[in-house]
Amino acid sequence: MKNRVREKRIEQGWSQDTLSERVGVSRQTINSLENGKYNASLLLAHKLAQIFGCFIEDLFIFEGDESI
Fold it and tell me: b/e per residue, 48-68, with b = 16+ CB within 10 A?
């Protein structure tokens, strides 16, 4: 699954530290998320969407089946 977290964060002019504090996770979690090494939980995805003022679907791009 790809995401637009880095793009949205940069649009806001926020560092990874700033975003991590706003959503209550570590900076390492934000880094792993942005680099595709971590898939956000539904709760984290919801928090990120709220922070950025968008829908979850605007942040996360599902590619193919991904064995749902």
Answer: bbebbeeeeeebbeeeeeeee
